[in-house]
TrEMBL record:
GO MF terms held by the record: hydrolase activity, acting on carbon-nitrogen (but not peptide) bonds, in linear amides
Domain of life where this protein originates: Bacteria
Start and end residues of each CN hydrolase domain: 1-239
The organism of origin for this protein: Photobacterium swingsii
PROSITE patterns per UniProt: CN_HYDROLASE
Keywords on record: Hydrolase
Identification of the protein by name: Carbon-nitrogen hydrolase family protein
InterPro entries: Aliph_Amidase/BUP, C-N_Hydrolase, C-N_Hydrolase_sf
Length: 265
């Protein structure tokens, strides 16, 4: 299984230009992976003057021109693309990730945890999402989601072997947290962060890049710098391994015992 990460700056609020850049990067790539991962909200940016700015850029997934364009690229390179695309659904707006192949949309994940920025713009997702590809079970988490071990444990219980993690973060805490989550839940965690910045009157969001793939052992299979680039990395997943489920059950059991001891004092 090969995974390609596209670490990119974002042409602010210019979906067409962002799609054009992705197409150029894939065309220049020597080897496109079985899975291609793009950052959170790769086609729009993340921080805006007003919620109306990003909400105007959100797309209905059943008629999304961004998803259609990515599907054409997925067909061209015989791959599956995982990309952060702002979503509108029945008058609500979501920080969502679309999973797309050459036939179109496979499914989507709506960010469950919310930063103060997310709360200004988006409704909260409430459902985990998994999909199978080449015998491997994948899950999706977005940026801040990774800070919550309970969410990642639920994915492990669902049999997820590789967690795909589109992100927009500026500090390196998420990189360390990624390593911890990979070890404690025995998952590969594939983090695709962006670079560059979003500038508004009240805030400047700066993004550090440093996308990485962390193995269940905690070993880094790759870590980017702070430039725009694409890298394709082979990961060896053993679908028969159930260590993660045992680990999750043990953690849950220990938590229950700790709770009982606390009540007995």
């Amino acid at each position: 299984m090969e995974v390609s990460l596209i670490q990119t700056d974002v042409f602010y609020k210019d979906k067409a230009k962002n799609l054009e850049w992705v197409a150029e990067v894939l065309a220049s790539c020597e080897r496109v992976g079985d899975i291609v991962v793009l950052p959170e909200l790769f086609s729009t940016g993340y921080i805006f003057e007003s919620p109306l700015d990003i909400q105007a850029l959100c797309e209905r997934y059943d008629t999304s021109p961004t998803i259609s364009a990515l599907s054409r690229l997925a067909a061209k390179y015989s791959t599956t693309i995982v990309a952060g695309v702002a979503e509108e659904h029945k008058g609500q707006f979501f920080n969502s990730v679309a999973v797309i192949d050459g036939k179109g949309l496979i499914g989507k994940y709506r960010k469950v945890t919310q930063t103060n920025i997310d709360k200004q713009y988006f409704s909260r997702g409430d459902t985990l999402f998994t999909f199978e590809h080449q015998g491997v079970t994948f899950g999706i988490a977005v940026c801040f989601d990774l800070w919550f071990p309970e969410l990642i444990r639920e994915y492990s219980k669902l049999g997820v072997e590789v967690l795909l993690h589109p992100a927009n973060f500026g500090g390196e805490q998420s990189l360390h947290i990624s390593k911890a989550r990979a070890i404690e839940s025995s998952l590969y965690i594939v983090t695709c962060n962006r670079i560059g910045c979003d500038v508004t009157t009240d805030i400047v969001g700066e993004y550090c890049g440093k996308s990485q793939i962390c193995a269940p052992s905690g070993e880094l299979l790759v870590q980017f710098g702070s430039e725009a680039e694409i890298k394709t990395v082979k990961i060896a997943v053993d679908p028969s391994a159930r260590k993660k489920v045992i680990g999750v059950d043990l953690i849950a059991e220990m938590s229950a015992v700790s709770h009982q001891l606390a009540l007995s004092k």
